[in-house]
Amino acid sequence: MGLPRVGPKVANRKAHERKSKTERKNKDKDEIDALEKRISDGIQFITPPVRFSELAISTKTLKGLEDAHFLELTDIQKCALPIALSGLDILGAAKTGSGKTLSFLVPILERLYRSKWTRFDGLGALVLSPTRELALQTFEVLRNIGRNHGLSAGLVIGGKDLKSEQEAISRMNILVATPGRLLQHMDQTTVFEWSQLKVLVLDEADRILDLGFAKTVDAIVKALPKERQTMLFSATQTDSISALARLSLRDPVVMSVHAQQENATPDQLEQTFIMCPLSEKMDRLFSFIKAHLKTKMIVFFSSCKQVRFAYEAFCRLQPGVPLMHIHGRQKQSKRMTIFYEFCRKPSAVLFATDVAARGLDFPAVDWVVQGDCPEDVDTYIHRVGRTARIGKAGNAVLFILPSEKHMLTLLREKRVPIKAMYPENRPLPPAKRPVRSQLEALCSQDAEIKYLAQKALVSYVRSIFLHSNKSVFKVEELPIDEFALSLGLSGAPRLRFVPRSNAKNDSRQLADIASDDSDSDEASLEETKSETVLPKKSTSKIDKMFRRKNLDVYSEHYSKLRDQTSVQEDDFLTIKRKDHDIQAEESAPANVTLSRKDILKTKKKYSIKTGPRGAHHVFDEDTGEARRVVPFASESTFDHGNATRLAEEFVASETTQMKAIDRDDAARQREARRALRINRKRKEKEVKRNSHADKAPRLSNE
Ligand SMILES: Nc1ncnc2c1ncn2[C@@H]1O[C@H](COP(=O)(O)OP(=O)(O)OP(=O)(O)O)[C@@H](O)[C@H]1O
């Protein structure tokens, strides 16, 4: 058998293909030579470019940009692109929504194109993003503008099958990745090769460097080749020299595009604050949503528990606008669905944690509402940056407590122009749609809402306790009981970590909190279980009943949460709290096994104060807590009695107790409502008095 004969037609086609391939190669080579010359001549620096077509970039990239309707450069792009295209390292800061993404994606495509990178050359560029959502968004932009190049690009963010990622990753020329998952591949994927890498980008660099990613990023950077271009971009610039040194930037060009401008936030962004007591927040938030039904709004809270409570409670109150919520404890697929759904809706309210605060490009957001005071000015800037993007108008409102008013000074110091929504020297007008009584009703009828309200409260107070800036966040000034009432609860749960003046075990309290994370439902659940619904000293039957009833709710949630969290593959989406003032030494006791002396002390204290004499106890070796040993009854000693009678007796006693609890609950709610009524009337009178005073003729010296 000979070789298969090739017909003249096929041979012609192959020859034609070869010819056009050679022509294409030659054309590319000519273009690359011309581009290299323009770049080395520094032509781009002579006349600052206005349009993408004026840059020294390939026709393939230019076409991709034009097809995506990117024609003119934004300020940061005008500054960064000529420098990045010439291969220099960059440290870039520019306002939110100013177009930083293209400032590094275009240079990546160009660098690989000019190096004649092929799919067989392996990894050429790496973009690190702090969150999966941001990575996905960057990847989409890259796919859009890079479609005419023959390069391969991959998204490495976890949440997907590691094996399938492992197979694909070795073929990728450009990767957009979150640090945790990338490091996992560097460790475990043997075929993954990065020794030729030319460009490294850190998007939202300050966050990647500050918030718990440091070690991961260190490990990644250490493994990458030293000869590379490195670019860092953020809306708020990091100035930590050590952080930058770790990334081994070579004489980076530092650009702070909007540093000279009067404001650190977009000029077309209208920023206001409402200073109101904590106990009025829910009323005012709901009223605000009701007053802006035809708009698209993001409402930020600092923990996912607050997000969940606001979302679930407001859903039941049906404000008349679609409500959504997004936080770090949801499954990745769910977050994606919510993200796209919110993008599509013409009007909607999205309750969110700071997982949505950075980099995400939600189109046409009218309002950013900050339901609680952000941790610092940078977080404020990133949150409000979800609106007023690329020259569009936008509005932001910050709900702030009177005790947090120092934050306003900090904001103004950092050139954030924020003004009061209502005149500061007068009392606030009453909320138009108060929801307190509805929340009360919800809490008493719906165990889930009550559970979420308790958790939201604990989590909020904890977040205030953990914030490092004590001139703004003063946990001791929080009106916790009033806040509890405003959430619909009949009282505040016990909060072990709220500092008390005579607290002897402060370090232990601190340790309890340090071991928790504001966005970590599961971790704090254990604590909340023991703190809020299982007060250790409660002894009445009602207390016991209350404990039993709520434990069911908790345990149901607990198992759901366990299911939910077990499918999450990596943890870097969880917002990690930044440098709060809990020192390592302070937090140590949580994990330290108590000394024998300490255990003996605890044993003694317990037996003297509380233990029944002669009872048999065991002591937990780790915590030193004493438990009474209840002996099992033996077959012979256990009196079974009549099962039906026992059951009837049990049901009867439980029913009596339930009724007692209901009566007690109703009385407490009546009392709370009465207090509210009195308060409201007092305020109305005050407002009336003030308005009369305003209308009264003024005396003048003239
Ligand atoms: N040259 C341009 N012309 C028109 N639109 C642009 C241009 N560059 C970027 N955009 C659009 O502006 C929006 C914001 O861009 P981008 O997300 O890159 O901003 P950013 O500065 O990274 O924001 P953040 O700091 O919030 O992450 C996007 O919708 C993007 O498509």
UniProtKB/TrEMBL annotation:
| Motif Q motif: positions | 50-78
Comp. bias regions, Basic and acidic residues? 661-674, 684-702
Q: Where is the DEAD-box RNA helicase Q domain?
A: 50-78
| Class in the EC hierarchy, top level | hydrolase
Residue ranges, compositional bias (Basic residues): 11-22
Looking at the UniProt record for this protein, which Gene Ontology cellular component terms does it annotate, in alphabetical order? Answer: small-subunit processome
Keyword Hydrolase set for record: yes
Q: Which GO terms describe its biological process?
A: rRNA processing
Query: Which terms are listed as keywords in the entry?
Result: ATP-binding, Helicase, Hydrolase, Nucleotide-binding, Ribosome biogenesis, RNA-binding, rRNA processing
EC number assigned by the record: 3.6.4.13
Query: Reaction catalysed by this chain?
Result: ATP + H2O = ADP + phosphate + H(+)
> Superkingdom of this entry's organism?
Eukaryota
The record's SUPFAM superfamilies line, in alphabetical order, gives: P-loop containing nucleoside triphosphate hydrolases
- Helicase C-terminal domain boundaries: 281-436
Short name of one Pfam family: Helicase_C
Q: Bias category Acidic residues: which stretches?
A: 514-525
Per its record, what are the GO molecular function terms? ATP binding; ATP hydrolysis activity; identical protein binding; RNA binding; RNA helicase activity
Q: Does the UniProt entry include the keyword Cell inner membrane?
A: no
Q: What is known of its domains?
A: The Q motif is unique to and characteristic of the DEAD box family of RNA helicases and controls ATP binding and hydrolysis.
**PANTHER family, alphabetized:** RNA HELICASE (PTHR24031)
Family, similarity comment = Belongs to the DEAD box helicase family.
**What is known about what this protein does?**
RNA helicase.
Name of the molecule in the record? ATP-dependent RNA helicase
> Origin organism of this chain?
Paramicrosporidium saccamoebae
